[in-house]
Known about the structure:
By secondary structure, this protein is mostly beta strands. It has three helices and nine strands; from the N terminus they run αββββαβαββββ.
Amino acid sequence: MIEHLGQLFKHLSCGVYVIGIRDGERQNAFTAAWVMQVSFNPPLLAISINPQHYSFKLMQTGGVCTVNVLSRDQYALAEHFGKPGLSDKMAGHRWQTAVTGAPVLAHSLAYFDCKVLHYADAGDHKIAVCEVVAGGKLNQGLPLLYALTGNMDGGDSFY
Ligand SMILES: Cc1cc2nc3c(=O)[nH]c(=O)nc-3n(C[C@H](O)[C@H](O)[C@H](O)COP(=O)(O)O)c2cc1C
């Protein structure tokens, strides 16, 4: 047993992202911090996603997603897209459509447009390995850090 493991994990430097998902007519978006680049060539990202999420089902069937980088002043967006069970989380925000068809959060700092290649098991999560096929810088600012979100994801209660 490691004391305060939830707080200790916050020392790993992670950003905070909104992952946009589309499967045909259905789309959704959720907050994720466990995202990283894992290859130069081809350009790959890995996203750790809880298979219980509604978004996971859409990701599995749709096979595409965007990773939208939140800025330091978008704490409220991280909270909003981190809430399960909202009927239309995406309403009231500006969205564009990426090359893959996945939704892009227009007021994020930057986005990556991805095709999901495969999944790996990782404890109670799955790691989606994704190829970056497009992307761009959208706005100026400093990225929001996971460490600044405190216990927003409820992680402290797991340890
Ligand atoms: C700061 C923060 C970071 C999060 N990071 C992740 C993550 O990396 N992976 C994940 O599966 N869920 C993560 N979550 C939880 C999801 O955002 C949350 O469960 C969300 O409701 C899932 O969306 P859905 O139920 O609409 O699919 C995070 C939540 C917050 C607030």
